[in-house]
Amino acid sequence: MSDVVAEQPPQSPQGDTGFARLAMVTIDCADPVALASFYGELLGWETRHVDEHFAILDNPEGGSPLGFGRVTGYRPEPWTEPDGSKHFHLDFYVDDLEESTAKALALGATEPDYQHGRTLKVLIDPAGHPFGLAPLE
Q1: Strand ranges of the sheet holding 121-124, from the earlier edge strand across to the other edge
Q2: For residues 84 and 78, is the Cβ–Cβ distance under 8 A?
Q3: Which residues form the Glyoxalase-like domain (predicted)?
Q4: Fold of 89-137
Q5: What CATH number belongs to 22-73?
Q6: Is residue 22 classed as helix, strand or coil in its secondary structure?
Q7: CB contact set of 101 (below 8 Å; sequence gap of 6+)
Q8: How many other C-beta atoms can be found within 10 angstroms of the C-beta atom of residue 88?
Q9: Phi-psi category of 53—alpha, beta or left, where left has phi over 0 and alpha has psi -120 to 50?
């Protein structure tokens, strides 16, 4: 009788299951300059690149940057209706929900009538994308 042992595949270190890293999140829009300005003010991030077709904001914490790309014929997502769909949304932690909502509205965000009814405040950016503000507690 021989001592044959099935060879086990090498184990990846815990949490190291992927082979790719997120390089950037890019948001489609009609006006990348304006949308980058909106999110730059909202987040306090610096602009790395901006032209009429594309803009990039750098994440000062070292994470992935945000990109904004011009799409000809861009139309906002129909999320503002309760049964509408969305392609993505961004959520942000804030220290003071009421104050942060007011600041985002002053930057050009709008507040849809429909809300989830939770502590998350849903707003719409100037290009029509939904985003959420949540208290950091």
Answers
A1: 90-94, 130-135, 121-124
A2: yes
A3: 24-133
A4: 2,3-Dihydroxybiphenyl 1,2-Dioxygenase; domain 1 (3.10.180)
A5: 3.30.720.120
A6: coil
A7: 111, 121, 123, 133
A8: 11
A9: alpha
- Map residue 87 onto helix, strand or coil: coil
Structure tokens at 41: 């003010």
Q: How far apart are CA 93 and CA 137, in angstroms?
A: 9
68-121 pLDDT, tens digit per residue, is 999 999 988 776 566 666 667 788 999 999 999 999 999 999 999 888 767 889
Question: Token match 């270190």: residue?
Answer: 13
Fold identical between 22-73 and 89-137?
Answer: no
Q: Identify the band that residue 3 occupies on the pLDDT scale cut at 50, 70 and 90.
A: very low
d(CA 39, CA 74): 18
pLDDT tens digits, one per residue of 48-63: 999 999 999 999 999 9
Instruction: Compute the half-sphere exposure of residue 114: CA atoms within 13 Å on the CB side of its CA.
Output: 10
E strand or H helix that includes residue 104: helix 97-107
The predicted pLDDT at position 85 comes to 64
